[in-house]
Design brief:
Organism: Lampropedia aestuarii
Protein name: AraC family transcriptional regulator
Helix content: 40-55%
Radius of gyration: 22 Å
Keywords: DNA-binding, Transcription, Transcription regulation
Oligomer: single chain
Number of domains: 3
GO molecular function: DNA-binding transcription factor activity; transcription cis-regulatory region binding
Number of strands: 6
Domain HTH araC/xylS-type: 239-337
Length: 340
Amino acid sequence: MRVDSPTSLIRAAALAHYEELVHSLGGDSAALLADCGLSPSDLCDLDYQLPYLSVAQAIEGAPRALAAPDFGLRLCALQSVETLGLMSLAIQTAPTVRECMLQVDKYIHLHNPALTFRNFMAAEGGMECLEVVHRIRPLAEMPQITEICVFYMCRLIDVLSDGALRPAAIHLRHAPVGSSAQYLRHLGQLPRFQAAFDGIAVDAFAWRRPMPRHNRLLQQLIERFLLGQAAGANLSMADQVRAALGSLMRVGTTDLHSVARVLRQHPRTLQRHLAAEGVAFEALRDGLRQTWARELLSGSTLSIGEIANLLGFADQSVLTRACQRWFGATPRQLRRGLPF
């Protein structure tokens, strides 16, 4: 399907468990998806890029077809936080819940480039607010998508604080689309409807407290995403390193110590395991850098300096030398698609 620009694409993870939910409500998910120009096969890979308009139509149209006004909240409840993918990696090192949520804002484009967040202090009450901002609105009205975004905020705060922190208030610009009982069941409180913004209000001091040092749930989410399967599966060490590096690299982290920490190994132990398999960490990293450099230079709007930073290079000149070694061409030549 043709789309207008890369910014109109979002990860298929936005529709994780969509088919399951539609079927549980007595609907035909294939028919609903077809009405939006999608097919069930489009949802098989969570990292597959789908047109935002089609995803929005699928989510906003389902409640009407299924007589389920809380469809968005139900969908969000089924989706585990790990469907956010790279964001769960980006936020793990933040010292406080507040900093974690600001990291989400920094990396939200990896999941949905149409969204951003804005934080500000409330006029009174000592509350800090986090607002969902739709940079792109494929539909004039998107209450279901808005409620999903706000519900995710609530769930992230709950996970990051090990259940110790909840929003003091939930704000939604639109009027209620479901019953009070439905909102209470999903959110634990009634939102303030027809508010000035979409988002949450949190005690400004409470979410600045240090994060729990051992957040087992968050660690498990990160491990499952990095390794692509349940912890303990029989992967070679080289494959585990490739999986971890392939994800960490996308948030600008490529060093041995970070990979070792994710895999719960001492760096020297990790290197010994790799040596026993006949590979070196530096060679694995170089191969992944080469693959992703080609993808970013040919298919992204990031500057060459930004790409160098993401790949873990000290500066743009190091990336240039690497590209000449890998491809016999400079980054600018690769970006222009010149023959080499």
